[in-house]
């Protein structure tokens, strides 16, 4: 069986206008802007749209005062060397987006739609993608402590060169999901792994887990 790899995002960032904190507001539509060295703690960007923008060295808020990106939409956007103790963007959309060198504590991004998204060299403690739809998403050279894909619809997703500590997928629908090389110490939802690809080594590592899930006793 041939594994279909994620299709890469396509960005076309030309001359960008410098953006400031005061430009960002609820339901705003911002296009062709560059946000650098900003602290967005407590900013309200609910339902905002960011089209063909660049974010660099931006703090998306602290655990107790995060920027509110509920329902926000990022398209054709580059996010580099940023930080978010708590990334609050549930029911949001990422389309043709590149995120690199970014540190995320808790990603509260459930019920979202991600399409053609690539994370590179990112450090993520917890990523809550419950009930989300992911298509053509790649985590490349990332370290993720826990990812929650419960009830998510996931297609053409890969974890190239990445590590994941806890992999949750209860009730998920997977298709062309490449988890080869991952060695999570806990998997929740083994029965939902249909549509995922693992390697020979993982098959041996997960044998006891699979047997337990199927009610098989190994002596």
Automatic annotation (TrEMBL):
<dbReference type="InterPro" id="IPR001646">
    <property type="entry name" value="5peptide_repeat"/>
</dbReference>
<dbReference type="Pfam" id="PF00805">
    <property type="entry name" value="Pentapeptide"/>
</dbReference>
<protein>
    <recommendedName>
        <fullName>Pentapeptide repeat-containing protein</fullName>
    </recommendedName>
</protein>
